[in-house]
């Protein structure tokens, strides 16, 4: 990754092993209402905004709670996991610190929100490592569009062609690539079904950040 001036990281599934959280929330939330999670529901939820997902869930299962009530329930269920149990991927923190030591600007582009993200960063010793943290809610479109990556690059004061994006989802990798950015796919078990396409799409595929540390030491 020679010549890179900024690295932009996704959060869930890329920096932290958190994808289980939302599966757990979905299962427990619906189970309390006598509903079983289906593959169709899981697939639909993958690319939705938080509020859109709540609307979809309410309408699909004809729930009595309001959309706002559903979102609040989800947030509280997830908050305890992010605050206490979600851990950073192996060597993620060390790799970011190595980039910072070389003067690389560090950004985050995430569909998560500060209420869940910030305590998780703090617990994992990663708060203060980012020059900019940007949310898809700020740009109004999901990661099927490059807007969040372009917005983060702008916040970092770096041209898109001088950025590398670390992502675990195929939609994000394609969008970042369309914005002229280099891409590194970070393996997460939640995306096993898309692994072959992810490998074809990304400029580089890694199973662990130790591979990036080894590369930077050469």
* Strand order within the widest beta sheet: 3-2-1-4-5-6
Largest sheet: 6 strands, parallel
Query: What is the terminal-to-terminal distance?
Result: 12 Å
Mean pLDDT: 94
Q: Care to count the β-strands?
A: 6
**Count of helical regions:** 11
Strand composition percent: 5-15%
Q: Structural class of the secondary elements?
A: alpha/beta
> Rg to the nearest angstrom?
17 Å
Shape: globular
**Proportion of residues in helical segments:** 40-55%
Q: Write the H/E string, N to C.
A: EHHHHHEHEHHEHEHEH
Extract low-pLDDT stretches. none
Give a description of the structure.
With 218 residues, this protein is α/β, with parallel strands linked by helices. Helix content is 50%, strand content 12%. It is built from 11 helices and 6 strands. The protein has helices at 19-31, 39-46, 50-61, 67-84, 92-101, 114-123, 136-139, 147-156, 170-178, 195-201, 210-216; strands at 6-9, 105-110, 132-135, 163-167, 182-186, 204-206. The chain has a 6-stranded parallel β-sheet with strand order 3-2-1-4-5-6. Helix 1 packs across helix 4 and helix 5 (92-101) packs parallel to helix 11 (210-216).
